[in-house]
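Lecture notes, unit on protein representations.

Consider one protein chain, 329 amino acids long.
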Amino acid sequence: MQYRRLGRSGLQLSELSLGSWVTYGQQVDVASAKEMLSAAFDAGINFFDNAEVYANGQSETIMGEALRQLGRNPLDYVVSTKFYWGLDRGGKDKPRINGQDTLNRKYLHHAIDGSLKRLQRDCIDLVFCHRPDPGTPVEETVWALHDLVQRGKILYWGTSEWPADAIRAAHDIAERHHLHKPLMEQPQYHLFARKRVEKEYDRLYDGIGLGLTTWSPLASGLLTGKYRNGIPAGSRGSLEGMGWLRDGLTDPDKNAAVAQLEAVAAELGGTVAQLAIAWVNHNPHVSTVILGASRIEQLQDNLKALELAPKLTREVLSRIDKITKSLAA
């Protein structure tokens, strides 16, 4: 395992990391989380990603308890969470005003205390603004996150799925007022979703020192090949509430491309999933690639992507581009 600095900070993250979206609270309980976190530590992983909204807070609770039971020194790992969506959301006719879909000061200052309690921590290392909030002035959000750093409740803050212009605006406000700046962005990045990372954010890497903690390297499982013949039982696409994923997972053109990638991966001695993870990891702007796993066997298999990384020659990368680039958004 190699380690990369997060943006222009001195913080170092393992090039592969472990997240909890979808799995924790649905497929992973405290016992299985503890098992996978222990295996992750043994492999050199030091970053574990979470969010307030995942499983309506249960994901943070599970991760916090599993880490407590493992008893690792907090200096040896980095934990994140994200805010925007809120917990216990109201319905369409009666939304929870100031408690959902917002990045206003009131919400952020209440939300951090809930996450600290669930994660059983005095301070959260990385906090992401989970989506942009058009209803709150960016300056208010920047000041609120700066205050949380000053109060010792978070160490670094950043964004997730923000457009480049909004990230730059937040950075410029922080710089103008000598506040803590947004350090990192967490975008979706895989072979079929690449334009934001490769084009839109391009001017931010050198311009403001933006770091990336990317999610969904396997396109929610599409890049494993498991959806070539439909939605298998027990897969992510079959879970309740994941219907919005299904059309993409069964896309015939993308699944045909996956079949071609399987041949490339086999030539390199790996699987298409390992090839897809190694491809994301190859981008020098990516500080860490967040993996998801519902079983320890999946995690161990995905970690073998590091063995493929040295084999991604210019010729191999060109072949991958020819198969996938025209299908990428």
